[in-house]
Specification:
Dehydroquinate synthase-like, alpha domain; Rossmann fold; binds glycine; 372 residues; 7-stranded mixed β-sheet; alpha/beta; two-stranded antiparallel ribbon; 13 helices; single chain; 2 domains
Length: 372
């Protein structure tokens, strides 16, 4: 059994478990955390039968009172109407301060259920149980919760750190291939921003499995136990990067901005595609463009750009920028939440494992990077 990771901020500390079969340990872990009140399990239709029903049954078997609520899959569930419905569900059934919300699913469920937990009775406990690669590596750790507003995504929310993050890597075997693939973008990102060893490990696997990867799920192969165990280990290592960064900077005042590598261009491209590109797919394109910016700035050499591109391709993703108007991309980057005093703060790689924040990238250079 691998040791738990721990997020430690100035205000709190909590375990982050990344392990095959981790869901089985939920009842004992809740007991150990002193969470003995009623449990409000929120999931989405994609995981309801597969994981939520057995989890609820196991918890009831251990003596817990469990209420369940399933939201429709997709970003539309991050709405004020759905949030209000969750509040009504909990209030009508007698929610108490000592209770806990359990968020089981991908990023949408984590954000919505986390925000419901943050706001009901001025805040009750939440346990994040991510079932997608993207949410394991990123969203479930660090306490960002929220919903969308008609004027933009994720504009309403709160930092509400979970009491526990339980990522059962067995759940990835039922994830649709495209959802697995997009998750690798964030894993690669964590290698580039902070863990060169992780990046090299990812390269080593690509070398062994073939660089020209046309497998639908990227590299994941549930039938290959040895490979699956290796990939689980890599996911844990990628999660460790998020754990470190959030521990240093809970409220995004400094270090946490580095997690946005690839996201400035990525978000713009995602929006221009009207969300036809998945988040991870857009981040992969964004990382490539931002590495090119770093190269043109003289911060890194072409070798970094090429190694990163090769890895992105090996894990089943693309690097080519879709043929959008460069002005439209630039206009959207100015709306990025990292803009300060009208200057974009770019997170740019100086080497594999090291990034720097720069607000002095000339527009003409950006255009060259995006047109290349
Ligand atoms: N997803 C970036 C962060 O949690 O800060």
């Amino acid at each position: 059994m691998t040791a738990d990771l721990t997020v430690t901020t100035t205000s709190t500390s909590y375990p982050v478990v990344v392990q095959a079969g981790a869901l089985a340990s939920l009842p004992t872990r809740l007991e150990a955390l002193g969470l003995r009140g009623a449990l409000w399990l929120v999931c989405d239709g994609a995981v309801e039968t597969l994981y939520a029903a057995p989890v609820a049954e196991r918890l009831r078997g251990a003596g817990f009172v469990v209420h369940t609520y399933s939201v429709p899959p997709g970003d539309a569930s991050k709405s004020s109407a759905r949030l209000s419905d969750l509040h009504t569900w909990m209030i009508a059934d007698g929610v108490e301060r000592r209770d806990a919300v359990l968020a089981l699913g991908g990023g949408v469920v984590g954000d919505l259920a986390g925000f419901a937990a943050a706001t009901i009775l001025r805040g009750i406990a939440v346990v994040q149980m991510p079932t997608t690669l993207l949410s394991m590596v990123d969203a479930a750790v660090g306490g960002k919760t929220g919903i969308n507003h008609a004027l933009g995504k994720n504009l309403i929310g709160a930092f509400h750190q979970p009491r526990l993050v339980l990522a059962d890597t067995d759940t990835l075997s039922s994830l649709p291939p495209h959802a697995l693939r997009e998750g690798w973008a964030e894993v690669i990102k964590h290698g580039v921003i902070r863990d060169a060893g992780l990046f090299v490990e990812l390269e080593r696997i690509a070398e062994a499995r073939g660089w020209d990867n046309a497998r639908p799920g990227g590299l994941w192969d549930a039938a290959d136990a040895a490979l699956t165990a290796t990939l689980s280990g890599l996911i844990r290592r990628a999660v460790a990067v998020k754990v470190e960064v959030v521990s240093i900077d809970e409220f995004e005042r400094g270090e946490r901005i580095t997690l946005n590598y690839g996201h400035t261009i990525g978000h713009a491209v995602e929006q221009l595609s009207h969300y036809g590109l998945l988040h991870g797919e857009a981040v992969a394109v964004g990382m490539h463009a931002e590495a090119r910016i770093a190269q043109l700035m003289g911060m890194c050499d072409g070798d970094l750009v090429e190694r990163q591109a090769a890895l992105i391709h090996a894990y089943g993703l693309r690097t080519a920028l879709p043929a959008y108007d460069v002005d439209a991309i630039l206009a959207l980057t100015m709306r990025d939440k990292k803009v300060q005093a009208k200057k974009i703060r770019w997170v740019l790689p100086a080497a594999i494992g090291t990034v720097q924040v720069r607000d002095d990238v000339p527009e003409e250079l950006l255009r060259r990077a995006l047109q290349a």
